[in-house]
Amino acid sequence: MSDVFRLLAGGGGGARFDKRRFADDVSIFTGAPATDAAAASSSSSKAGSSSGTKLSLPADLDFFGGASAQPATAAGKAGDAKGKGKAKPEADSGTATEPLTRATVGAFLKEHRLKLTGTDAPLPLASWAELSSRWNAPEWLAQAPAKAGFAAPTPVQCAASAVLLDDRDLLAGAPTGSGKTMAYLIPLLHHLRGPKPGPVRALIVAPTRELATQIHDQLRKISGPRGVRACVLTKANEGNLKQGEGKKGIFDVLITTPMRLVNALEAKEVDLSGVRHLVLDEADRLLEEGFLEQTDAVLAACSHPELRKALFSATLPAGVEEMARTFMVDAVRVIVGTKDAANESINQTLTYVGSEEGKLHALRALVHEGKLKPPALLFVQSIARARELFQELVYDGLHVDVIHGERPRAQRDAVVDAFKRGDVWVLICTELLARGIDFKGVRLVINYDFPQSTQAYIHRIGRSGRAGRQGEAITFYTKDDAPHLRSIANIMKNSGAEVPEWMLSLKKSSQNARNKLKRQAPERIDVRVAAGSTLGRKTANKRADMVRASKRRTAAAASSEAPAQPGEQEAPAAPPTKTKKRKLAAGAAAEES
Ligand SMILES: Nc1ncnc2c1ncn2[C@@H]1O[C@H](COP(=O)(O)OP(=O)(O)OP(=O)(O)O)[C@@H](O)[C@H]1O
User: Fold this and answer.
1) How confident is the model at residue 542, as a pLDDT?
2) Which of 92, 95, 131, 150 for mutating ligand 1's site (highest number of atoms within 8 Å of CB)?
3) Where is there biased composition of kind Low complexity (predicted)?
4) Pure H helices in 424-477
């Protein structure tokens, strides 16, 4: 039996993977025909063990491309996207594409559903070759995207990169998974040219440490032979950013969460007066309650007179755009597809589960019906519920793990790696993973708890269907969620999903109710209590033993790590008072520490 196949086997009770039913999936793991794979099944590994042995994965199992040295031909993949608003490069790999002219740009914008507004908005670039022909970028930079597997630019890269290469302020909205990160990293590298001792010259702010780390990884991938020096700000490397007293800063690019940066600013460990390029990734989140105060402080500390600002997100509510206009100068606005819409490569469904008690039944039914296609993300509304659901599912043989802002940093990193390797099949998570995280191979997102806003919905389900791949999202709703059903149903309809007419004609929830829901998650009974009726005493005792054992393993693994601060961005609690605001912000940025 192959190691990979051993991974499929789960221990304990509950709804296990039925390997006959999932013969097609099993065959991926064995490389054998589906029927043989099913016949060869046997069980040995422990459910929920994510630390797992390192496996050498067959290509089909390398869901996230992490195991293969050669990245997937991303341009080809993105090129697979059919229809509107998707990451769709304009040409096949390597094909030279004519630069756009004022005469041809209209058709290009229409074809790629691009909206470009602003004074003298620059023409989008039509191929990476224009990096050198139009902006005189060094050869290595013009070749960097193709080397990274991105043969042709995606629509947001065509339009937004051109604006940034022209050194203009930018507000960009494009669907999840459409390549926004490269859209700003490539121009950044162009402007920085190479490493230069002295103060930090570029600053990228993102709401979670996980996203900051991912951006850093992407930057390293393309930063070329004379690579600029970038770091994710941590307590440990703060000192290296200090200027003066005979010290010269050694980092060109700083990538950070707002709270971490504000702490460093307050401790006078970082000087941002040399920052020429500021990127706010997931800008609407950074300009929302919980982060706004910190983002404000960061903007104030970036005092360079020629500071250029770039704001990116898949969702840009009107209020955020309005706020952005107060600090941007002569900005160009780029929108790909319909603003604030879900990615159209994702097949979306809403599932009525009655009450909290119905959720586990519905989840287990998905497993039995072979509809829970791993790798899958399972979103819940709070850290407490993430823990509860993990305790409930850890015995189901699903190779499940959990990630949230109260797990120590090393554990969070290990879980992300295990998920990328394919060791974890189902990852229970909070909003910590909802934004920006690029697990390319995620096949299914389940909203176990109803999302608290349309933005949360768009970002959560956007963890699948990336770079032109197909994805799937299932959202559970109870009768208590019904008042907010209509707004999600509308988002679904606007991205081409079939939605029953009655959902669209439900009464619209009031702005107040929507704001309240956004601020505060609804009360839900404990997942374990909801499941209580299905558990025999014996099973319950066995579960308790296994949870204790799992906790012991976790504690042993984390013994060297200080835990992150409690709270996180998805649970911004009650309307903030002044002091509470500060606490909230600390909570919102818990994952950065
Ligand atoms: N030109 C390209 N061709 C094909 N794939 C690309 C291209 N540029 C980026 N990608 C890939 O597309 C995936 C999604 O990119 P990225 O994470 O930047 O999306 P995003 O638009 O920022 O999404 P989100 O809104 O969720 O943050 C990544 O795996 C990236 O490597």
Assistant:
1) 67
2) 150
3) 555-572
4) 454-461
What are the structure tokens assigned to 37, written together?
């794979």
Q: What was the pLDDT predicted at 60?
A: 37
Mind listing the pLDDT tens digit for each residue in 124-157? 999 999 999 999 999 999 999 999 999 999 999 9
Q: Look at residue 388 and give its three-state secondary structure.
A: helix
Candidate of 64, 438, 459 to mutate for ligand 1, largest count of ligand atoms within 8 Å of Cβ: 438
Give the residue among 53, 44, 56, 5 at the shortest CA–CA distance from 26.
5
Beta-sheet strand order (sheet of 114-117): 114-117, 332-336, 170-173, 308-313, 277-281, 202-205, 253-256, 230-232
Per residue in 168-203, pLDDT (tens digit) is 999 999 999 999 999 999 999 999 998 998 899 999
- The residue ranges of the chain whose pLDDT is under 70 are 1-96, 238-248, 533-544, 557-593
Q: 404-441 as b/e, with b when 16 or more CB fall inside 10 Å?
A: bbbbbbebbbbbbbbbbbbbbbbbbbbbbbbbbbbbbb
319 by DSSP, 3-state: which?
helix
What pTM value is reported for the model? Answer: 0.79
Report the half-sphere exposure of 172 (CA within 13 A, side-chain side): 32
pLDDT of residue 97: 84
Calculate how far, in angstroms, residue 79's C-alpha sits from the geometric centre of ligand 1.
12
Q: Quickly name the fold that domain 104-336 has.
A: Rossmann fold (3.40.50)
**Distance set, CA 382 to CA 275, 438, 585 (Å):** 36, 21, 16
| Closest Cα to atom 15 of ligand 1 | 179
Does the CB atom of residue 436 touch ligand 1 within 6 A? Answer: yes
Residue 169 corresponds to which tokens in the numbers above?
Answer: 């302020």
Crossing angle (nearest 10°) for helices 409-421 and 537-557: 110
Quick one: pLDDT at residue 249? Answer: 73
How far is 69 from 31, CA to CA, in rounded Å? 20
Q: Which class is domain 346-519? A: alpha beta
Specify the residue with its C-alpha closest to ligand 1, atom 30: 179
In the chain, residues under CATH classification 3.40.50.300 are 104-336, 346-519
pLDDT of residue 248: 63
Strands (E), 207-249: 230-232
Residue 543 pLDDT:
63
What SS3 class is residue 228? coil
Amino acid letter for position 238: E
